[in-house]
Amino acid sequence: MGDLLAGLPLDLLLSPWALALVGLAVGSFLNVVVHRLPLMLERQWWGDVAAQMADAASYQRVFGVKAPEVLARTAGGLDKSIEGLPRLGLARPPSRCPSCGHGIRWFENIPLLSWLMLRGRCSACGARIGLRYPLVEVATAALFAAFAWRSGPAPVALLWCGVAALLLAAALIDWDTTVLPDALTLPLLWAGLVCAALGWLPGLTLPQSLAGAAAGYLSLWSVYWLFKLVTGKEGMGYGDFKLLAAMGAWLGWQAILPIVLMASVLGACVGLAMKATGSLREGRFVPFGPFLAGGGGVVMIAGLPAVLGWMGWA
Question: How does DSSP classify residue 235?
């Protein structure tokens, strides 16, 4: 297989059509990441809770009294419950139908095609398979094709495809859970800095990448603290700072303001629409991460000069 691929020209391997097919497969994996990574994090958090409850010395330092025995017993029960859970990772266990437990066979797991052949239903129990699964696959394929078209048949297209995949996964997880996992944002940040240092990002130097990361983080960090000082409430999470810092590392400091402006306008429109239709529940808020990712995606595909030109800043 390697010899076969080695004989193919680069413009074919990195063509929009070829990378779109890769995107379908990556999108299928992203569906797994979006579903399982939050569950894996919640297990870890409950383990942290159990460890903290079992720390009698910490309790005494904080509260000034001896820890009640019930905390240690509860911590032990939590530990046993967590240890009794089946293993959960991104690769294991194999995918199953959440309704009947039917193991998904290989021919039922072909990106997009299997969903179409199964008509969006489990082959065993007939339970509906959510439309979001094929939509994520198609969206990933479209993003990969867009970056192949934008970059041409050059290896840098693969870097941008990787960025797009991480941004899409982070956006979907944030939309579902209002959590932006460090497991996605921090590797994206460091990868941008490393690629800039190695000269793999045309037109972006390491100082520009560092300035972009700092500007991305500090801009939202400042807004967060100003809002909290004025209202006493938290307007966003630290994951938003890290996500914008990551995009600054890939795009440079000049991209920060266009990304934030696009994200703010889009987020406000979606939030107002959801409130008007009653789909935004009382006390809940619209996460900002998906719109930051969307704004970053526009800048990556269109190019920073074009976006600055749209805004009259070129």
Answer: -
